[in-house]
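Justification of resources, computational component.

The compute hours requested in this renewal are based largely on the per-chain cost of generating structure records like the one below. Each record pairs the submitted sequence with a full C-alpha cell output. That output is archived, and it is also reused by downstream analysis tasks.
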Amino acid sequence: MPDIKTLQDGIASFAKRNCYEGSAYNLTVSKGQKPKVMIVSCSDSMVDPAVLTNAGPGELFIHRNIAGLVPPYQPDERDNYHGTSAVIEFGVTGLNVEHLIVLGHGNCGGIKSMIQDHVHVGHESFVAAWMRIAEPALDVLDENDEVLSLAHKQHLCEKESVKLSLNNLMTFPWIKERVEKGTLNLHGWHFDRGIFSSYDMKTGIFE
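The structure output for this chain reads:
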C-alpha cells in the first residue's frame, strides 16, 4: 500500500513522462475536456471506471459516490446539497455528453450494508441517509429472502440499484427530453471480478 511520499513521487514521475512541451498529454489537456461519455459509479477504491474501460484523459466524465447511486429529481430542495445531481446536470447540459452510464459492481460495501441494515445504525449517519435512495432495490429479495445467501442477495440488489438509478435519471426533465430526442443514451452496467453485464432497457434483463 503506497504512503504519501510514494504518491507524491508518482505525481512527479507522471509529470516528467507526460507533461513536457509538445507531449500528447499536454496537447490533449490544452484543448479542454469534451467527453462524450459520463459514468456514475461507486467510490470503492477497487473500481476505477477509467482503469476498467482503459480510457485516456478527457474521454470520460466521471462522478463517484457511495454505491454509484443516482437520486431522483428534487427541484423543490435546491437549497440542500445535491452533489450528484449537480454533476449530472453539468455533464448533460454543460458538456452535452451523448452517453450516461450507471456502473454497479460486485461486493459493493454500500449495498451490503443496506442489506444487513448496518447503515441504519445512528439516525445522523450521512451514509444511512444516502443509502435510502437504494432501499426500493430490496424489493427484489421479498420472494426468496430466507433461502438466498448474503452474496446472492447482494448481487441481486447491486443490479437492481443500477436499474433504480436509471429510472431516477429519467425523472430529470432535461435527461428525459434528450433521451426522447435520441441525443442522450442511458446505459446500466455491472462488473464483478471479470464478469461484465449490460442492462437491456427494452427487455429489463442484464446480459
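The mean pLDDT is 93. Strands lie at 37-42, 60-65, 99-105, 185-192, 195-200, 205-206.
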